[in-house]
Amino acid sequence: MTLSHLFDPDGIAVIGASKTPGKLGNDAMTNIESYDGDVYPVNPSSSGTVYGYEFVDSVHDVEADLALCCVPGPVLPEVIEECGEAGVGAAVIFAGGFAEVDADGERLERTITDLADEHDITLLGPNTAGYILPDLDLYGSFVPRIREVESGNVGVLAQSGGVGVTASFQLEREGYGVSAMFGLGNRANTGFAELIPELDADPNTDAIALHIEGTDDFEGFLEACENAETPIVAFKVGESDVSDFVQSHTAAPDQDNRQYEQALATRGVTMVSSLTELIDASRALADSPVPDGQNVGVVTAQAGPGIIVADALKQKGIEFPDLADDTQETVDDLLQGITYTENPVDTGRPMPEFGEVIDTVARDENVDIVIVYEIYEDSLGYPVEGLESLTDDIDKPVLFTIAGPNHALEEERRAMEAIGVPTFQSPKRGADAVAALVDSISTEQEETDRSVAPSP
């Protein structure tokens, strides 16, 4: 089985395509029409065209590597058999009603999986919202407007297609996009173990975000994480007893979160506890240099938000080092002793020298990571030019938490992103992103310690 037919298909068949707006087969066609390749709507009950593509009666009538299956579960054995006979190499199954439902559904899923294995077909799903590869304009999903998600550098592998779609739209709304999004669904023969290596090898993916409910192939999953060179962030749901709900969703096994936390921490994976943290941590790891250590410098133009940042980091066990003597002297001179000038440094409000304060703290040899908070003011803007010089000179993560009207600050926010300064929408989100960077150093050390530990 090869995944190349998912990542680089030569021809796509939409089986169950429809002219009727609102039907799954129509929504899938609205998304896939952006693909720069041959698209074949397959439906023996339809004639004419849909979105300019002529209907065909059977997948046997076309040459396609990928099939998007927009048909009910009971007819899928016949559909997968026909796909195999026609040389289709990958199929996305949107329908539910399989192992997540009952024993009959489990038998049906086993049947289509066996047929797929017999014909060497990669299955995404069943019970999935599909996948997207924005760089290829490939939107293999029925979710309306998913085609509007643009390219980014975070790849999302979500056990729940709904979670993958939610993460993708949030990243799009905030101006980032994704390199890929896969909704794994029931993982018939394609899951984390198969897709993590593919995203790890993808030059467009600088961080991998995982949403996990549970996996039958736990060892294969851990091996894929351990072998990956791309930073991985994972959100494992199930802190409370929702195992029945989870099993009814993607047929996921009931697995304790601590099992994942302990195993992934020794394999260099950063764990988070919410979807927003998953998004922010992945962006921080994708866009920041690897810090040399865990010492954090905080620079804030407003005390209240700065206290939120400091408090959130302290709760995660992160300490703030004393600034070096020469750094402290420079900061005192810039601020004239009217605010809190130790670490965290509070300038009281935005000021012309704010960029100099950031620069001074960031260059301190005691500081490995810098987190900044500043409300946007039209008369000052953000210190983008100074930050560009700074990031050219030092190889440290510098994160910026922003506040203000989006239309006023958006240009400068994007400019900061372009020079490698990730931006965040609230003090807590900025702090959580810093904590993820610190955690990535800890898990990397645990992975190293594990690799050099003597065998028992």
UniProtKB/TrEMBL annotation:
UniProt-recorded Gene Ontology molecular function terms: acetate-CoA ligase (ADP-forming) activity
Keyword Magnesium found: no
Sequence ranges assigned to domain CoA-binding in this UniProt record: 6-98
InterPro entries: CoA-bd, NAD(P)-bd_dom_sf, Succ_CoA_lig_flav_dom, Succinyl-CoA_synth-like
Reactions mediated catalytically: acetate + ATP + CoA = acetyl-CoA + ADP + phosphate
Stored SMART domains: CoA_binding
Annotated EC: 6.2.1.13
Species this chain originates from: Halostagnicola larsenii XH-48
Name the UniProt record assigns to this protein: acetate--CoA ligase (ADP-forming)
PANTHER family, A to Z: COA BINDING DOMAIN CONTAINING PROTEIN, PEPTIDYL-LYSINE N-ACETYLTRANSFERASE PATZ
Keywords: Plasmid
Enzyme class: ligase
